[in-house]
Design goal:
There is one protein chain. The chain contains 2 helices and no strands. The chain is 89% helix and 0% strand. It has 63 residues and is mainly α. The protein has one domain.
Length: 63
């Protein structure tokens, strides 16, 4: 390996982990979960409305 890669690897091994990184990763994961759950809720809401409207139209058509 080139010297700069070895030095970078050794430097990464000797530096302690930054506890702030864990917090940032947790917040990023939380944001992803919130966005995905919001999109899922909106999708289910639209599907439910379409199903209800379809059922209403079918009921009206029977009379």
């Amino acid at each position: 390996m080139p010297d700069f890669m070895i030095e970078k690897y050794e430097r990464n091994q000797t530096q302690p982990a930054n506890p702030g990184d864990a917090v940032l990763w947790f917040l990023l994961g939380l944001k992803v979960v919130l966005v995905v759950s919001t999109l899922l809720a909106l999708t289910l809401h639209v599907v439910q409305r379409v199903a209800v409207e379809t059922a209403v139209i079918e009921q009206i058509g029977r009379y």
